[in-house]
Design brief:
Layout lengths: L1 E5 L6 E7 L2 E2 L4 E13 L2 E16 L4 E14 L13 E15 L2 E12 L8 E13 L5 E13 L19 E12 L5
Antiparallel strand pairs: 1-2, 2-4, 3-4, 4-5, 5-6, 6-7, 7-8, 8-9, 9-10, 10-11
């Protein structure tokens, strides 16, 4: 059983999580409950609570498979800078899985595919999509490490946002389509943690 909390200031979240680890011959299960509160301009912007379940199993000394499921209820509140924030309020569900392959004791490759469904009061803030991720982790001597990651995100929104474009052309798709590809890489020194 474990518990963690992060206390935040303006623009940063207060987060708390509690859960446990259950080990069986089939898999290691990690259930979790969480709560998050975000302030922007000293006003409550988002309160979110939910549950998650992670499972992983070693197939060999080098290969681990994993799966995850997560549900959250997100309650947005209108603030001075974004009076329409409550239109984003609703549930969000994630499910996915992947595998890790240990090349050496200090180097790992991982890949995953995740499905995400966002419900919202305003349909132009509701979407569903997929994320395809790949990562490489390399731990160096003296606590340094190198991490690189590639993520391809594709979200399809339920309706176009008429505040952005009041009209729809004949060749426009009936929904907004959002794609994002990013590549991250970084080195962390043990002296600068």
């Amino acid at each position: 059983v474990w518990f963690g909390a992060i206390l935040g200031a303006d623009g940063k979240p207060f987060k708390t999580r509690a859960g446990g680890v259950l080990k069986s011959w089939l898999a290691q299960l990690t259930p979790e409950g969480f709560f998050e509160h975000i302030l922007l301009s000293n006003e409550t912007y988002l309160r979110s609570e939910g549950v998650a379940l992670n499972a992983e199993r070693d197939l060999s000394k080098r290969v681990t498979v994993f799966g995850t499921g997560r549900w959250a209820h997100e309650a947005y509140t209108g603030i001075t800078e974004n009076a329409a924030a409550q239109e984003r309020s609703g549930d969000q569900v994630w499910t996915g899985g992947g595998l890790e392959y240990h090349l050496t004791p200090t180097m790992r490759l991982s890949g995953s595919l995740t499905y995400n469904k966002k419900f919202a009061k305003a349909q132009y803030n509701a979407y569903q999509g997929y994320t395809l991720s790949a990562a490489h982790t390399w731990i160096w001597p003296k606590g340094q490490f190198f991490i690189s990651a590639f993520n391809w995100i594709n979200n399809e929104y339920n309706e176009p946002d008429t505040a952005i474009s009041a009209g729809q052309r004949e060749d426009d798709p009936p929904v907004r389509d959002h794609r994002l590809v990013h590549l991250d890489a970084g080195v962390q020194s043990a002296d600068h943690q």
